[in-house]
Write a structure and sequence with these properties.
The complex is a heterodimer of chains A (about 160) and B (about 100).
Chain A: H1 8-22, H2 27-47, H3 57-83, E1 92-97, H4 103-115, E2 119-125, E3 130-135, H5 141-160
Antiparallel strand pairs in A: 1-3, 2-3
Chain B: H1 2-25, H2 29-32, H3 36-58, H4 66-100
Helix pairs in contact in B: 1-3, 3-4
The chains are: A mainly alpha (about 160), B mainly alpha (about 100).
Amino acid sequence: MRRWLPYPILSVALAAAWLVLNQSVDAAHILLGVALGLAGGRILAALQPPHRRPRRAAVALELFFLVLADIVRSNIAVARIVLNPRQKRTAGFLSVPLELRHPAGLAAVACIVTATPGTSWARYDAARNIVTIHVLDLLDEEEWVHIFKQRYERRLREILE
Amino acid sequence: MSTAAALLILAGASLALIGSIGLLRMKTFYERVHPPTMGTTLGTGLVLIGSMVFFTLHESRPVLHEIVIGVFMTLNTPVTYMLLLRAALHRDQTEYSKQSN
């Protein structure tokens, strides 16, 4: 089991992606999808990523919908900024000290930050564990850091650490 | 229902358009990174949902492979954005440290 399915979720996702892409549930495609899933799991195991099974599916689901809502909200906010160029705003860099250290968590934060228009990941200082973010409309720095840590970092730590 | 699909696709396309206008209007590189993200997130999302609605009705079977496009977009665009931003930061290193002091 361990040997053939080191990452069961990844293998199932790969097989499902193959079937969805081919839009078919033929026996041949199922066979190919299963082979792809098994091979993908073995390849990932060979890469030896830091192993920790994610826990708390409920928190992960909550985070997913939170991020979805934030993407919609910030899309509207950025559209407003683009359409009202005379409105006063200050763009700038913002440093957020993190407690999260798990590489997968950092990757998730990077994806969330860049997927939300209005914020983008600028740099990460691994020694001091500080991430620098560029924000299009920086209203209140402290408020922003607080929201960031409460909304994303706390949940990611619950899931991963 | 195809009206709903059309509205979704139009809304997504409008977001991509506003994002491109933003790309033109913004003054600095770091600000310019932000507006096009609208096209790659909610813009793409709405167009994909519109496509799923339309083709599911049109072919009267669930058409879901748009989800895979969405997953790939979400995983790939941050990489490009980060590379661009890091390159700009590298270029402006001296200027940026002057600004922040």
